[in-house]
Amino acid sequence: MSTARMHRRGLTLIEMIATITVLAIVAASVLPVVESAGAHYVESVTTRRVADRAAFAMDRVSRVLRETPGVPGSAGLAIDSIAADAIVLTNGTAIRLVGDELVLTIDGRSGVVCGGVEAIEFVATGADGVASTLETPAETRRLGIGMRVNGLTVRTAIFPRAALGSE
User: Which domain holds residue 153?
Assistant: First the structure.
């Protein structure tokens, strides 16, 4: 029996400690990579959600402003007032930044189009595309909108359909 014990191969304590040490080194080098991948995934999902919200808001606002009615018997648009952070049409439709929410009012009903809006800017220009029409909103032919939502900035230019037929 003593010869049978000598031929049995077992795991020594030193081999076990060496194995655990190697596995710990491998785990320590792989762990930051796994954590970084997880953090980048979360960041990309957050950015995508913000981009989707901003794109939806910009699309909704663009559609409303593209349909701005014209003034009968005039080449102008039915815009009551334009400020850097709000636009009001003569039919009562309005787009305003209230706190950090972009609020759209149509037919007396208001709703939040997008939250987390840090800034919005309306730029109104005349037929030449250069001259500001903030003081004379009925002469507006083109609108520019810039909006920053949670650090993401989106911009667009709008050509109201009523203005296209007047030039």
Answer: 43-164
What is the mean predicted confidence (pLDDT) over 32-40? 90
Q: Would 32 be classed as within a structural domain? A: no
**Number of domains, the chain:** 1
DSSP H helices in the chain:
2-7, 13-66, 161-164
Task: Say how far apart CA 101 and CA 116 lie, in whole Å.
Answer: 6
* Residues 136, 120 contacting (CB under 8 angstroms): no
**Whole-prediction pTM:** 0.74
On whether residue 17 sits in a domain, the answer given is no
| Each residue's pLDDT tens digit, 61-77 | 999 999 888 877 776 78
Using only the alpha carbons of the chain, give its radius of gyration: 31
- Dihedral sign (CA 59, 77, 96, 112): negative
Torsion of CA 83, 85, 87, 92, to 10 degrees: -120
Terminus-to-terminus CA distance in the chain, angstroms? 108
